[in-house]
Write a structure and sequence with these properties.
16% of the residues are buried. The protein has helices spanning 7-15, 19-38, 44-60, 71-101, 117-136, 138-148, 156-163, 170-187, 195-198. It is an all-alpha fold.
Length: 204
């Protein structure tokens, strides 16, 4: 009758580089790992990948699994985490494909769809501001882009000369242009057109 090898003894032999011990360990726990994987609705190829990843992770963490009886719990937790990560990637990929396949006239940048919700909202708002400035056009667009789009402090004297207005009228003109921009942004569905009156538009 073949002798039974404890998890601890097999792990010690695995740490020593014994391939036979590794084969025994995988054979002992393959059914457990597969049972965890099959509880998640994943594609066949993804299931195979997770099975490999679970045992690859064990190879990398052999030194951290030393307590007798802890291996089953470690493999279960690790496999669940890998399944959750795969599921999350699948949901993100599906959402991105849906966004890119929309045919409702909305412009969708593939790079934007990889951002999280907060980044996506920020990028969308910036694009709306750029669209709003483009629609505004004329001296208002030129003034607002010069005031808020440059990295450094704008030269008011040069700006006034370029626009053909007095330096003292830049402030009142800016206020009127921001009011116009707010109206344009509301029409574009910015969601908070009044913010254009309170904040400098981001045109970068």
């Amino acid at each position: 009758m073949a002798s039974y090898h404890t998890d601890g003894s097999l792990l010690e032999r695995c740490r020593a580089g014994d391939p036979a011990a590794w084969d025994l360990l995988v054979a002992r726990y393959r059914r457990l790992v597969w049972s965890v994987i099959l509880k998640h609705r994943l594609r066949d190829e993804t299931r195979e990948d997770i099975f490999q990843q679970a045992f690859s992770a064990l190879v990398e963490h052999l030194d951290s699994v030393r307590e007798e009886g802890a291996l089953a719990a470690w493999l279960t937790t690790t496999t669940k985490r890998l399944c959750w990560q795969a599921s999350e990637r699948g949901r993100r990929d599906a959402a991105r494909e849906t966004a890119l396949e929309r045919d409702d006239g909305t412009r969708t940048d593939p790079a934007d769809t990889r951002q999280d919700d907060a980044d996506f909202a920020r990028l969308t708002e910036r694009q709306l501001v750029r669209d709003g400035l483009e629609r505004l056009g004329g001296k208002c667009r030129e003034l607002l882009e010069a005031l808020f789009g440059s990295a450094g402090e704008p030269n008011y004297a040069l700006l006034a000369e370029r626009l053909g207005i007095r330096v003292g009228s830049i402030g009142p003109t800016r206020a009127r242009c921001l009011e116009k921009l707010a109206g344009v942004l509301e029409g574009l569905g910015f969601g908070a057109g009044a913010a254009a009156r309170e904040k400098s538009p981001e045109t970068d």
